[in-house]
């Protein structure tokens, strides 16, 4: 149960005809360090052509650049970050971030942590967790480069977040996932359904722990860059039915999430989540969750 | 202030004021918290607040946020042209011809911040000649530049 044919046949069953896509490179202005207009003007003066991404607050497509956008003074000064467009969506979905207590449960290498800090204008507190040594070092470097001031990093598995003995207003659960072919040219050769199911199980454990450390009026944003419904709609359906959570409407690109997966009917509110098939962005899935008993 | 930090800042012939109750050291790395972080932090953290620098091989290695704090004082600074800016970021020393302006007093051996013409800190170095000397030569030896982030990324 692997290979291009196997997975693309599944995509057809889910309503999407496979097209080989490669995500267009994108950047995000770190608005705590630069005004959007200023950052854009400086990059354009260097000959980098940008186009505002309509569905994001601070994101721009790279239309043309003669050199790596990671090799400019502006990048090194933390005025912007290189961040794939779909990956910029989750942090923007929280209702309010300034002065909040935020958990970034799977934070490394830190692109979304920096984005959260930027949206929070360095107020409040971000607790950032991850487990890989190298990835945590990369996270520290990102925080330093982008002049983040409101984050505490712990080496801790998101499934053990209760050890922090803290509850959070906002939880970003950008879980480790199987990825997708648009972000990895060897994806079809590397992935099997067994991997997908193993990841889905870990993701459920993370969702459960996130629900345990969520304040009563808090919000969870769950995201993956996987196209496999086991890691996406099926997990959200499970969370709704098991963790006393409900989905909230979100506004972003993509289509309503599926409520019928391989013949299995899911809770109709799963459709409030978004499924993004690869095109200009990589494949992505995002859902916003709250407690069912929240007023 | 914590001694290695204090001594480092003094080499720029300036000083900065940091709230000592918000300074923390963890495995020879120094961080500046704010009151909210102080309330939430536990001892097993890996990184917190504003990273200030670390002791490496008995030398204090500053972070870029610390250099930015020093840049807000009357510390010695050399302002370099655009070409020199990128050469410096690539690890090169600063030649006198690339220097547009110097501020503060600095003599041979003193530390100086290296700034671009937008008043942004690119790193720091050490004067190899007196800042008032006229002769064409290497003016500032590169000790740390922003390109360090790229070098670290490559390591990862």
SS-based class of chain B: alpha+beta
Sheet of most strands of chain B: 6 strands, mixed
Distance between the first and last residues' Cα of chain A: 44 Å
Number of domains of chain B: 2
Q: Average pLDDT value of chain B?
A: 92
Give the proportion of residues in helices of chain A. 25-40%
Low-confidence stretches of chain B: none
Strand coverage percent of chain A: 15-25%
SSE map:
The complex is a heterodimer of chains A (295) and B (156).
Chain A: H1 3-13, E1 26-29, H2 36-45, E2 49-52, E3 59-64, H3 73-76, E4 80-82, H4 89-92, E5 101-104, H5 111-119, E6 125-130, H6 133-145, E7 151-155, E8 168-174, H7 187-190, H8 193-212, E9 214-224, H9 233-242, E10 245-248, E11 255-256, E12 260-261, E13 264-265, E14 274-276, E15 284-291
Parallel strand pairs in A: 5-6, 5-8, 6-7, 8-9
Antiparallel strand pairs in A: 1-3, 1-4, 2-3, 9-15, 10-15, 11-14, 12-13, 14-15
Chain B: H1 3-10, E1 23-26, E2 29-32, H2 35-40, E3 45-48, E4 50-56, E5 59-62, H3 64-71, E6 77-80, H4 82-89, E7 94-95, E8 99-103, E9 111-115, E10 121-127, E11 138-145, H5 148-155
Parallel strand pairs in B: 6-9
Antiparallel strand pairs in B: 1-2, 2-4, 4-5, 6-8, 7-11, 9-10, 10-11
Explain how this protein is built.
The complex is a heterodimer of chains A (295) and B (156). With 295 residues, chain A is of the alpha/beta class. Chain A has 2 domains: 24-83, Alpha-Beta Plaits, CATH 3.30.70; 85-291, Rossmann fold, CATH 3.40.50. Chain A is 29% helix and 24% strand. Chain A is built from 9 helices and 15 strands. The radius of gyration of chain A is 19 Å and the shape is globular. The N and C termini of chain A lie far apart (44 Å). The mean pLDDT of chain A is 96. With 156 residues, chain B is an alpha+beta fold. Chain B has 2 domains: 3-69, no CATH class; 76-155, Roll (Archaeosine Trna-guanine Transglycosylase, Chain: A, domain 4), CATH 2.30.130. Chain B is 24% helix and 35% strand. Chain B contains 5 helices and 11 strands, in the order αββαβββαβαβββββα. Chain B has helices spanning 3-10, 35-40, 64-71, 82-89, 148-155, and strands at 23-26, 29-32, 45-48, 50-56, 59-62, 77-80, 94-95, 99-103, 111-115, 121-127, 138-145. Chain B has a 6-stranded mixed sheet. The longest helix of chain B is centred in the first third of the chain and has 8 residues, at 3-10. Chain B is globular and about 55 Å long. Classes of the chains: A alpha/beta (295), B alpha+beta (156). Chain A binds chain B through residues 70-71, 73, 76-77, 101, 109, 124-125, 127, 134, 136-141, 143-145, 147, 149-155, 164, 166, and chain B through 34, 36-37, 40-42, 44-51, 63-65, 68, 85-86, 89, 116, 120, 122, 146-147, 149-150, 152-153, 156. β7 of chain A pairs antiparallel with β3 of chain B.
